[in-house]
Amino acid sequence: MKTKNILIIFLLGILFSGCDEELELNNPNSMTAVEYWADEEQAIAGINAAYNSLLIDGYYMRMTPALNDGRGDDFRGDTPWPDLMQISNFTILPTSGPIQWMWSAYYQQVFRVNQILERVPEIEMDEAVKERVIGQAYFLRGLAYFNLKNNFERVPLIISVAQSEEEYYPPTASEEAIWSQIISDFQEAQSRLPVDYANISGIDQGQVGRATKGAATGFLGKAYLYSEQWNLAATEFQKLIDGPEVNIYRLEDNYKHNFGPFNENNDESLFEVQFAGTDEVGGTVMNYGGEPSAAWMQVSSVGHTYAMDGYGYSDFLPTRWIYDKYKSEETVDGGIDPRLLVSIASYEPEANSTTVYNGTPWPHAEDAIYPRKYTHDGFGFDTESQGGVERSEINYRVMRYADILLMYAEALNEMGQTEDAYDYIQEVRDRANLPDLRETKPGLTQEQMREQIAHERALEFAIEGMRIHDIIRWGWLYDDAKLAELRAHDSEFDTWSPGKEYLPIPQSELDVNPNLEPNSAN
After folding, report:
1. Measured distance CA(485)–CA(470) in Å, rounded
2. In 347-412, beta strands by DSSP E
3. Which among 84, 229, 238, 309 is most buried, taking Cβ atoms within 10 Å?
4. Could you tell me how many helices (H) and strands (E) the chain has, helices first?
5. Which residues have C-beta within 8 Å of that of residue 512, sequence separation ≥ 6?
């Protein structure tokens, strides 16, 4: 079994209890929020609890990857669970449980972070540690709103702890205001966070998994890119490529290292969510969500949800389009793009790939294909989730350096520097042993380069939860020719209708908040 330096996430119900001024029902066995926030140890426990939100079902444990992947043209539904099928074909209802779980997970994190930003500045503690706690809080709030914006279109902005009854019913914010807040939060995080935690002093010294200056820089650049502020995006990406200070990342030599239980928190990873098996961190209760408990596990359900028939739920399958796309270009030595067999499990005698998991002969029809990314297939394991169903310990990589390179190429192209974009695309292609793009496709126009970048992103980031957001931000669903292509890639786009690319605002939220507006998917 692997060993890893993992950031242990504590579950602190005491942070989130309170009292009503008219009727006090305080639990004598726990602190209230007023009594908490007294010292450095409590500040660290508070930020750990904010990280914990990443580990529940609505966030990266399962639904954020699944509901994003399911809407892309590289994935299609293959499940008896109606919600996942309806997500995948853009017919999901606002009463869906998974939709509510996602919304709740993001706002749970926002709520926890807002307490930190309000209370921690007043604590007498090591100032450097305080600065890092506050920086992490800004990062996590920026990440939560980045997910809210890209999945739910328009949402309320809650940036302080509610102090009155009116504040319990926040209004829907404009898209401009949401992007402004996301950018501000990542800027604040960038200015406060260290490059890493290895060479600092304090209670958090050496802890892997915490947000860093590089992670904040990457997401700041991504927020600028998504809001089409190309020059600002390029500036941030260039810091990660050329420096100063945060140019510490590189592509892993082996693409496979980015998606399995080994080689986690590697040199390509800017930020990843830390999952772990019970043999590493304990736990007896599945961390789906609900009332915080010290007995929660820290396991992921992604592997078992995606794994092939006989090993997992097989709730989704890769589309034949993305499989064929991997085979559209040979490597320089005439082979198959190595990312294919990392991303997709398929029967490939010519690539000496005819087994699954720990050498089991291919157990399916020879033309069957299944997801492999984020499963244990190919890592020497006989089964999928270790120790029981849905108990994967594989970290979820939220941002990789490959994304920085391709986003920088995109920003350069949009700024009219198309020729310069080749260099950064080629870095990613070189790892896949693909030919020099300058030789195979010299002199691309800006529009042709857009198409090429879309092609490169599809292959590099298949089954990583990004494809639907690329499709949305590029406006493909509202371009007749592009929509026709998407429908050819994945017939689930046949049932898409305008606005349905987003997830609907949960009906339960609309029912209780009179100031909350439906979005285009409701």
Report:
1. 15
2. 355-356, 360-361, 369-371, 396-400
3. 84
4. 19, 8
5. none
- Which amino acid, one-letter code, is at 108? Q
Preceding peptide of 371 cis, ω within 30°: no
C-alpha distances (whole Å) from 187 to each of 79, 181, 232, 345 are: 41, 10, 12, 40
Are 41 and 279 contacting, i.e. CB atoms less than 8 angstroms apart? no
Task: Give the chain's length.
Answer: 522
Determine contact, residues 103/145, Cβ cutoff 8 Å.
no
DSSP assignment of 270-286 equals: EEEE--B-HHHH--SB-
> Token pair for residue 163?
């102090």
Whether the Cβ atoms of residue 75 and residue 463 lie closer than 8 Å to each other: yes
Q: How many CB atoms lie within 10 A of CB 436?
A: 13
Give 165-176 pLDDT, tens digit per residue.
Answer: 889 999 999 999
Residue type (1 letter), 105? A
Task: Count CB atoms within 10 A of the CB of residue 7.
Answer: 17
The percentage of residues in the chain with a pLDDT greater than 90, rounded to a whole number, is 91
Instruction: List % helix, strand, coil for the chain (3-state, nearest 5).
Output: 45, 5, 45
Structure tokens of 53? 């939100």
Q: Are 161 and 231 in contact (CB under 8 A)?
A: no
182 burial via Cβ count (<10 Å: 0-12, 13-18, 19+): buried
| Average pLDDT taken over every residue of the chain | 94
Rounded Cα–Cα distance for residues 363 and 348 (Å): 13
Give tens-digit pLDDT for 186-207: 999 999 999 999 999 999 999 9
Q: Are 320 and 348 spatial neighbours (Cβ–Cβ below 8 Å)?
A: no
Distances (CA, A) of 361 to 48, 131, 314, 357, 367: 43, 54, 18, 9, 14
The amino acid that residue 61 corresponds to is: M
Contacts of 40 (CB under 8 A, 6+ apart): 123, 125, 126, 129, 130, 203
Residue 422: partners with Cβ closer than 8 Å, 6 or more residues away: 409, 437, 438
d(CA 294, CA 506): 29
The single-letter code of the amino acid at 399 is: M
User: Which two structure tokens, joined as six digits, stand for 327?
Assistant: 């085979």
pTM: 0.95
Q: Which SS3 state, helix, strand or coil, does residue 344 take?
A: strand
For 449, list phi and psi in degrees, rounded to 5.
-70, -35
Burial profile 82-108: b = 16 or more Cβ within 10 angstroms, e = fewer: ebbbbbbbbebebebebbbbbbbbbbb
Alpha carbon distance 291, 310 (integer Å) = 33
Report the distance separating Cα 228 and Cα 478, nearest Å. Answer: 17
Rg (C-alpha) for the chain, rounded Å, is 23
- Tokens 């033309």 -> residue: 367
Q: How many CA atoms lie within 13 A of 429 on its CB side?
A: 22
Which residue matches tokens 């639904």? Answer: 63
DSSP 257-271: GGSSSSSTT-TTEEE
